[in-house]
TrEMBL record:
Residue ranges the record marks as coiled coil: none
InterPro entries (alphabetical): Ribonucl_H (IPR013520), RNaseH-like_sf (IPR012337), RNaseH_sf (IPR036397)
Annotated source species: Chlorobium phaeobacteroides (strain BS1)
A Pfam family: RNase_T
Protein's UniProt keywords contain Hydrolase: yes
Domain annotation Exonuclease: ranges: 4-185
Keyword terms of this UniProt record: Exonuclease, Hydrolase, Nuclease
Identification of the protein by name: Exonuclease RNase T and DNA polymerase III
PANTHER family referenced in this protein's UniProt entry, alphabetically: DNA POLYMERASE III SUBUNIT EPSILON, PROTEIN NEN2
Keyword presence, Hydrolase: yes
Lineage: Bacteria, Pseudomonadati, Chlorobiota, Chlorobiia, Chlorobiales
GO terms, biological process: DNA metabolic process
Amino acid sequence: MSKKVLYIDVETTGTNPAKHGIIQIGAIMEVSGIIAEELNLKCAPHSGADIDDHALTITGTSREELTHRMSSKEALLQFKQFLNRYVEQYDREDKCYPAGYNVHFDLDFIQQWFKMHGDKYGIGSYVNWRRLDPLPVLFMKDFTGALHLPDYKLETVCRHYGIRLEAHDAFSDIRATRELLTKLL
């Protein structure tokens, strides 16, 4: 069976998945080490989501821009169509490894996003929860003295490894994360 990796990154209206919403999702589906498909969706947050102006400033997004984006529900439908092209969601043996930088943050938001739109199974229908995350590897390198950076933000780490990044754009972030993980492995 081929290994599937779902590289995933989200940009949000804040840091709390229970009250903030997703406004961009960048994803790469890798099958047997080859990029099968990439996805970059920009959407409005779900109805009722709190919007932190600082979070919008970080992503370079205006409130006005959000009003012209596809709905959160439409973005979720497109994301699920993307996933369904590669994973049989009801087959326990057919799941992806979720990958990303500090990926638990992204997975928490995505899980809440599914629930907000009435999908009780959520992202767990598609992933195996054995997370591939370069951040713990970097922390181990720091601990052993093999690496010392002023901080371990994705932007700092990518600069150190010579990886191109337009920080806080989910699609750029996930492409850089995939490259970083490949270098570290």
